[in-house]
């Protein structure tokens, strides 16, 4: 079974290492030896952290994936192009493809699945979400006989590391980010992580599998963590909460639509997700019959991601030897993604207010006007430091947004100091 590898960076080099070190075991598990047919790279002659016959390297990726002697293509170069064109070329020629490309799957997964169907090949992508954690295959296969109602979790290790450091040390966002970059958890340009783009792509993939409907990253409501301050984290901590960047995919109560969102949220310290530290990932899957399942582990890194790639490689290799295919894309449900405004959630709101009689009554009146009920309220400080801290009951996001806009217009409210959604304690 001959394998073409696209990319020899952090993940690609680990894929080669594992293929070499575990060659005998992999051959026994697949039923045939796995042989590296070629490695496509941008530049030849570059020093790499893995031993490979120099003759296997090529800069002509298109020729490599279309060679007649190649059975399986592994894509770990990332991005949209040329990855999409290369994967489609391979699939249309009947080759099986293993990819870790979350951005491409979230933007144009339909094209890849259609090419796999046309070429009668496999498309596997376990490594695209949560690194080494076996998550997509359980959704795709193990829970195929159940009805998934919600997926909730931490799917970006960089932001989890930053928020964990802010919580445990009191560091500012910028200081925690700098530490994450020093340790290699964050890129020099961390935008994809800290602004939620990476998590949104993963949420789109998770929602598509969970609800048997096509979802793109554009349909995911996305908020990052760049506006979270040390004060926000400390305030949450004082109330017994921790702030996490969560990916949330949930069916509506009537089951006809679902929401997909990525945003920071406060969760109780008693919640299992609150204990997810450093750059780890953890995801809850809730299904009607199976109940609540939790998946936890290393969500990124060369070796963990390569582990998921090799698992898919064994699966597609077995399928090819048996003359079968793995499961196709399941989109029979055709459920719609409802807008964020219709999503029911809860909020923690901190208001800088004038310290005088009647303030609470006027604030409560505004909440009631928009059908948002208050669960708890407390006043902190006096005079110029007076602040109201309010936690709401569940309401639509549109109602909460309208309430915040109204609060900013009240003459007794000097500023809406912070607004944070609350999850996991209802």
TrEMBL record:
The keyword Transport does not apply. The keyword Repeat does not apply. NADP(+) binds at residues 6-13. Its EC number is 1.1.1.3. Residues 348-421 form the ACT domain. Its cofactor is a metal cation. This is Homoserine dehydrogenase. Keywords: Amino-acid biosynthesis, Metal-binding, Methionine biosynthesis, NAD, NADP, Oxidoreductase, Sodium, Threonine biosynthesis. The lineage of its organism: Bacteria, Bacillati, Actinomycetota, Actinomycetes, Streptosporangiales.
């Amino acid at each position: 079974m001959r394998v073409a590898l696209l990319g020899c960076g952090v993940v690609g080099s680990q894929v080669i290492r594992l293929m070499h070190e575990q060659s005998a075991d992999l051959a026994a598990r697949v039923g045939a030896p796995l042989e590296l047919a070629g490695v496509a790279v941008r530049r030849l002659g570059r020093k790499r952290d893995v031993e490979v016959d120099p003759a296997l390297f090529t800069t002509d990726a298109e020729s490599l994936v279309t060679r007649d002697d190649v059975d399986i293509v592994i894509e770990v170069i990332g991005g949209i192009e040329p990855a999409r064109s290369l994967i489609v070329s391979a699939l249309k020629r009947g080759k099986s493809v293993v990819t870790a490309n979350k951005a491409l799957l979230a933007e144009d997964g339909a094209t890849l699945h259609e090419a796999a169907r046309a070429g009668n090949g496999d498309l596997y992508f376990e490594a695209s979400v949560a690194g080494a954690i076996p998550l997509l295959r359980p959704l795709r296969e193990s829970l195929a006989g159940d009805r998934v109602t919600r997926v909730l979790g931490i799917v970006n290790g960089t932001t989890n590391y930053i928020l964990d450091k802010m919580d445990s040390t009191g560091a500012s966002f910028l200081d925690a980010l700098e530490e994450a970059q020093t340790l290699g958890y964050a890129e020099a340009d961390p935008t994809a992580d800290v602004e939620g783009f990476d998590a949104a792509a993963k949420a789109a993939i998770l929602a598509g599998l969970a609800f048997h409907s096509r979802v793109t990253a554009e349909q995911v409501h996305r908020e990052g963590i760049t506006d979270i301050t040390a004060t926000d984290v400390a305030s949450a901590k004082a109330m017994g909460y921790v702030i996490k960047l969560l990916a949330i995919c949930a069916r509506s109560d009537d089951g006809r639509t679902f929401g997909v969102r990525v945003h920071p949220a406060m969760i109780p310290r008693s919640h299992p997700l609150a204990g997810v530290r450093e750059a780890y990932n953890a995801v809850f899957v809730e299904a009607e019959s199976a109940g609540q399942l939790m998946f936890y582990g290393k969500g990124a890194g060369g070796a963990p991601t390569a582990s998921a790639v090799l698992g898919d490689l064994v699966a597609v290799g077995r399928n090819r030897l048996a003359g079968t295919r793995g499961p196709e894309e399941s989109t029979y449900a055709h459920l719609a993604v409802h807008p964020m405004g219709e999503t029911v959630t809860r909020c923690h709101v901190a208001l800088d207010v004038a310290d005088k009689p009647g303030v609470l009554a006027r604030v409560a009146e505004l909440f009631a006007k928009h059908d948002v009920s208050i669960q708890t309220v407390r006043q902190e400080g006096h005079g110029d430091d007076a602040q109201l801290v309010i936690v709401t009951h569940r309401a639509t996001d549109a109602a909460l947004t309208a309430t915040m806009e109204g609060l900013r217009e009240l003459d007794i409210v000097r500023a809406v100091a912070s607004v944070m959604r609350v999850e996991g304690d209802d």
